[in-house]
Write a structure and sequence with these properties.
The chain is rod-shaped and about 155 Å long. The protein is built from five helices and four strands. By secondary structure, the protein is α+β, with helices and mostly antiparallel strands. The C terminus is likely disordered. It has a four-stranded mixed β-sheet with strand order 2-1-3-4. 70% of the residues lie in helices and 9% in strands.
Length: 212
């Protein structure tokens, strides 16, 4: 009888020992699973955070680029408006200058003489608007006398221009546009540069906004 009880107790003790071992192993397995899950979650959160940071930075760069493009567009528009205003003012000053008949006629003669000296051809055709043609026609003899060796012909057909003249060789191979509009076109880049330097000077913070 005692042997039976001892056997039962031994079996129960063994069972308890095994149960404790399994319980300990299960706890360790549970902890390992939890650690692995936590690590996976951490890695996932890290990846998501990296992706979110990348998307955020890209979105920020896109907003900055969009703002820079908008600023550049506004500055270009402002520059164009300034150029147009100056050109309009120059046209107004030209009209005022043309009211001084003697000074304007002297100006026309200077334009004609400077252009004629650039031609190798001795025969030149001169075109201008109707009003300037009248001015030149009235002084044509002295104009021709001031250019010995050149044969000048004042064309009947008037051209559309605020002032100045268009000269060409008789064969049409050489042409000099000394109209107000032609001279403005040749000086446009220099005019824009002068406007920007005087009205939109580059600051240390901004740099030159219209170069590069």
């Amino acid at each position: 009888m005692n042997q039976v009880l001892e056997l039962e107790q031994a079996i129960l003790a063994r069972a308890q020992q095994l149960a404790d071992q399994y319980a300990e192993q299960a706890q360790k397995t549970r902890e390992a699973i939890l650690r692995e899950a936590a690590e996976r979650l951490r890695q996932r959160e890290q990846r998501e955070d990296t992706i979110a940071r990348g998307l955020s930075e890209r979105h920020y760069r896109q907003r900055v680029q969009a703002a820079e493009l908008k600023l550049q567009s506004n500055l270009d528009r402002m520059r164009w408006n300034l150029v147009r205003r100056v050109e309009d003012r120059l046209a107004e000053r030209m009209r005022a200058f043309m009211k001084d008949e003697s000074a304007y006629l002297a100006h026309l003669r200077e334009l004609l003489q400077a252009a004629a000296e650039q031609f190798e051809s001795d025969s030149l055709l001169v075109q201008c608007n109707a009003e300037d043609r009248k001015r030149l026609q009235a002084d044509w003899a002295s104009i021709e006398a001031a250019l010995p060796g050149k044969t000048l012909r004042l064309e009947e057909d008037a051209i559309t221009t605020l002032g100045g003249m268009l000269l060409r060789s008789a064969d049409g191979r050489i042409r000099v546009n000394n109209t107000f509009e032609g001279r403005m076109a040749r000086l446009r880049l220099r005019l824009q540069q002068a406007i920007l330097e005087r009205l939109l000077p580059a600051s240390p913070e901004s740099g030159n906004l219209f170069t590069g």
